[in-house]
Amino acid sequence: MFRGKLAALETSTALGSVALFEDGALVLEREQRVSNAHGESLLPMLDLALRDAGWKPSDIARWGVGIGPGSFTGVRIGVALAKGIHLATGAELVGVTSLDAIAAAAVGAVGAETIVAVLAAMRGEVFAQATGRIARGPTCVRIADWDAWRASLDAPEALVIGDASPIAEGTPPHARLVGRLAMTRAADDADALEPVYVRPPDITLPKSAKPKTPP
Amino acid sequence: MLVLGIESSCDETGAAVVTGDGRVLSDVVQSQVALHAQYGGVVPELASRDHLKNVGPVVREALTRASVRLADVDAVAVTHRPGLVGALLVGVQVAKGLAWAAGKPLVGVDHLVGHLFAVFLDRGEVRELPGFPFVALLVSGGHTAIYLVDAPRADAITELGGTRDDAAGEAFDKVGKLLGLGYPGGPVVDRLAATGDPTRFPLEAPMLHTKTLEMSFSGIKTRVAQLVEAGLPSGDRAEAVADVCASFQAAVVDVLVKKTLFAAEAHGVRDVVLGGGVAANRALRSRLGEAAAARGMRAFVPPLASCTDNAAMIAYAGALRAKAGERDGWDLVATSATVLPRVTRKGRGDR
Question: Model-level pTM greater than 0.90?
Fold first, then answer.
């Protein structure tokens, strides 16, 4: 278990959040819902949180950062900021996936041997991951195929939690959860730390690369 | 003064350390060209992913090569416009994290402003510097315009005219693709043009004879497409391809040089400066120099490393801002548009 000052960032969804911990205890948390990823708001929110806590950036020995899956741009905004901070202070970085963070919110739930974490992935799909007795994913599932995927887990008792209407709502990934997991894990190689995209990039070939039909 | 610059606006991840007077202590560029080649152009999402993968080692390398610790740096400069927003924001967020955690001022830099002042970078060569005001031709894969630069400040730069459609570099790459020369085609077109006959397939760049400083490179690309569709002679195909390259390059260089010198004359300016990735084109470099000299003007063509996308020019433009006491807040965002007001509207029709 990590001791000392730890800060966590989560930007996989429209709900951006930061949380500060000391010796395992939550010191404060801040969150902000945005419509345009978090490029403009994340660092000002973090800066204010540190002022409120009376901390300096160099006081923080470890950073937990959300690495998705989620909004590609949102995740990169958090991970790139963390990489910059690491370059300046040499603090440790620990990447935590959004689905692990969601699952962490269910820890202690009575009778749940398997936890299924879900997060909206746009375009009629959800990111999903099963952990516990049954482990599967992270993967991308079409909402239309959800019942079949859920049945294929063969874990009818599983607790489904997360933020992907209509499957589950109300538990988006949060820096508070990212920070709790970041305390329990080994530090990552900061330069090699990459988001978990799950979905490959959408590549549309340019018009000129497609066969031309005569007018 | 020491400034760390970071660049990630398109398909090069760059970091550099430059002194306040432009001496380049390090200039690291990690190119993604091979990554995008199979798609025939830059794929924005792939570019963003690759910038995030490379930026840490690239920044570290820039500091190491300059033998500088972050603590010695006086400001962190970063390209925040124009470009691919997803690519830009990787550099912007890293720069913000660095500057914030190290307690350094952050300065955002317009990529085009960086190119326009790249001529002042000192890479250890013997050089002459242009005096203000000068006229600059900025020509790359994303931009083609002529500027009047009155002083070393972004607000002292005036666009005099630019392309209405494709950038010249984009036209080079598209012609390369039409002729089956791969991506990026520009350098190959340049190489083949040197051996070709520019009179065999005569091409003229549109708007060559108009009195405005506006340009257009879409029509000439279409002319090349028509030549290719009509079928190049199969007997001497390699020669024909070189001849098309020679004709296309001569036409494009002709219009770029003519309009740039026309702009300098119109504004009574003696110094003209070349910048941007297409400044790597050998015909453009030599033609601009000769034509300027013939008119009693001086042409300044920076070394290639200063013309193509690089972080040293961002660090230097950032140093100019930092020296003037300017800095940006932690809410700095990436934006696709340049800060320089455009005078040339895109598209066809009357003006």
Answer: yes
